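so my prof wants the structure for this chain in the tokens format not the other one, which i didnt know existed until like an hour ago. anyway here's the sequence
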Amino acid sequence: MSFYIVPTPIGNLNDFSNRSIEVLKSSHIILCEKKIRALKLLNYFEIKPSLLISYHDDKCDKIAPRVIKELQNNMNVSLISDAGTPLISDPGHKIVKILIENQIEPISIPGPCSIISALTLSSLDISNFLYLGFLPKNPQKIQKILDKKLYLGIPIVILASSRELIRLLDILDASYKETFLSISKEISKINEGTRRGKIIDIIQYKEHDFFKKGEFIIVVENLVKKDLDSDLEGIETLLKSLKKEGLTLKQSVNIVKEYCKISKKIIYNQALKVWNEK
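here's what i got, hopefully its the right format
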């Protein structure tokens, strides 16, 4: 018995791996987002689970006991999303957490993920990156988030509808003239495409058909590095932000070193203070 996290195609059905198909065919129960969407995929590949359950995290308390019971009865259970890898801006984290708490180790099947594809298409150094998902609708809240995150000096990944994309472009154009963007849409579909460039260039084409429809993955990086030379308070602020985002002390020191000319030893000593704080 196993609980599988199974990615589904984000466009081209040929992206669906043989292993993913085999796992779903062996699953007694499949948890999905929308049944209608899931049935189209399952019927195409002749996958017929005994039970297909529409799952969202607010239903977890009701569904989890049944899933655990099925697993204890040596039945396979799988989780899929409408498209791509489950849990990434999609439901699933609550039930995975409950299973782990009950000593049931989930198995994650590798597969399609639009975020990773967009990052690899961006032309940026993606050794480190930050995933933000969908931003709030309030422009002031978006501005506040960008003020903190662009300061990190690594690519940040944002999901957006066409309307949300235009709002983001306007905010970047007003406050962050020296940002580089890679904007991908409809990855693995017929109309897939990517636009890259500085905001001052991209904003000129925001009325173009490319930006009017679809789901977008935006990779943004700040090209202007804030002058932190001799600004220990600024260095400490940046180190705290990097720590909060889950970066290691070593990774954080290397990123901050790119921002200033002071010695790496001073940065390291500041980092030790931040990492030793309780």
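also thought this was worth mentioning. The two ends are 41 Å apart (CA to CA).
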